[in-house]
Amino acid sequence: MLVLPEPTRLFWRRVIGANFLVANSQAASRLAERAVDARFDAALRLEMLRVLRAWLNPPATDPFLGRLNPVLPGSKPSRGEVARLLRPRIGRLLADANASVRGEAAHLASDYRLDEAAEQLSAMVAQPDENSHVRVAALEALAQIGSAKSGKLAAALKAALTSRDDRLRSVARRLQARAAPENAVSMLGAALERGSLVEQRSALATLAEWQTEEARRLLATWLERLLDDRVPAALKLDVLEAARANKSAAIDRLLRQYERRISSANDPLAAFRVCLQGGDAKRGRDIFLRHAQVRCVRCHRVGGYGGDVGPPIDGVGRKRSREYLLESLVAPSRRISEGYETLVVELTDGRTLTGIVKRRDTNGLTLIDGTGRTTRVDHEQIVRQRAGPSAMPDDVSKHLSMFQLRDLVAYLASLR
Ligand code: HEC
């Protein structure tokens, strides 16, 4: 394989990007041919495959240049045309040495309904050494390709349901539920009873969308268990949200009971305690760094990056309990970290300033507000001063789902 030096790689990315924009038959055939050409490394071939997929469902912004509405109207190659180009090559792509390429090839087989890939996809699902994501993509592709090859799908489902990979088992169960709805709820019930956390969550997510009385009855029994405190901590939120999404009269009654208990607890954290355990630290990190509304990094530094209105959060999971961390998110003013108390000062000129005391000396003090702006105030300017609420926003929980809060707690707790 020819590993291309960086400038060449950049050049080729521009070429792939240009083909994406041109979006005609010639572009499609150039990309399909080069995607199986071993002289290009896996990262570039992966981009080519992504373009072939993106035409079916063009993204709102250009993945190469970030422009809006990138694909020129008019001459987009048809689904049939791209499928014709892929058919003779899909076998080689699914057998590629690179797992990401194999996974993307499975998505292509799915999107373009390449039924000649069924046999190979089925073998990939059954192969215990295959990468877990690739196996899942292959199984989903088989289900998408459809009924003509249902023998292959049935075999793959059987292999998946008995595999050692709990993610694969979960996806198989969801597909199996659709294929044989009459047994779905009992199968999901068994997974809830005896499966791993991954399988339990996946079963609950399927039940949340399963609009039958039988599914709602099963959800109601799990909600009762939650009220009796017999659900593992990491699964509580999943039970609650599944029940909220698929209500019956019985579920409604139990939910009201749950809510009464929360509001009588005289504990502002009560409604959020289901977020204490079971989050995904990686997703939480993403929220911390990138979520547009809450923008934690604007005020908190982590690993040397971020603002300094709030305390740096490196090692916060070592210093603070999960409860403390949750409280910081949903009720920040209950406990304010030392050195970050907010002061409200009234000045002789009638202005009122609010901020954290950044520096204090014999002549006065320097305040920093929530946007990071500092103001110097002399002692003789101050008429009155008092403690204010935390400078940490108190509406974080309004912008985030309960699942996102759970992920944030997991992330903060993981900073050791
Ligand atoms: C406008 C600035 C600002 C933003 C945005 C902000 N915080 Fe804060 N945060 C603060 C300040 C100031 C404190 C210290 C005062 C306090 O303890 O309430 C604080 C305290 C905390 C603490 C307690 C740290 C400790 O050691 O006591 C945690 C944890 C925390 N924030 C997490 C977050 C997360 C997660 C987000 C994003 C969802 C976020 N913050 C967004 C300003 C901010």
Characterization of this structure:
- This protein has about 425 residues and is of the alpha+beta class.
- It folds into four domains: about 180 residues, no CATH class; about 80 residues, no CATH class; about 80 residues, Cytochrome Bc1 Complex, Chain D, domain 2; about 45 residues, SH3 type barrels (Roll).
- It has a five-stranded antiparallel beta sheet, with no helix packed on it.
- The protein is flat.
- Bound molecules: heme C.
- The site of heme C (HEC) has 29 residues, from α18 and α20.
Give a brief rundown of this model.
With 416 residues, the protein is of the alpha+beta class. The chain has 4 domains: 6-180, no CATH class; 185-264, no CATH class; 281-335 and 394-414, Orthogonal Bundle (Cytochrome Bc1 Complex, Chain D, domain 2); 342-388, Roll (SH3 type barrels). The chain is 54% helix and 8% strand.
What coarse outline follows from CA principal-axis ratios?
flat
Distance between the termini: 42 Å
Mean pLDDT: 92
Strand order of the largest sheet: 4-3-2-1-5
Give the strand content: 5-15%
Q: What's the total helix number? A: 20
Bound molecules: heme C
* Alpha-carbon Rg, integer: 28 Å
The low-pLDDT segments are none
The major pleated sheet works out as: 5 strands, antiparallel
What is the chain-wise order of helices and strands?
A: HHHHHHHHHHHHHHHHHHEEEEEHH
- The number of domains: 4
Given the helix and strand composition, which structural class is it? alpha+beta
| Number of distinct beta strands | 5
Share of helix, binned: 40-55%
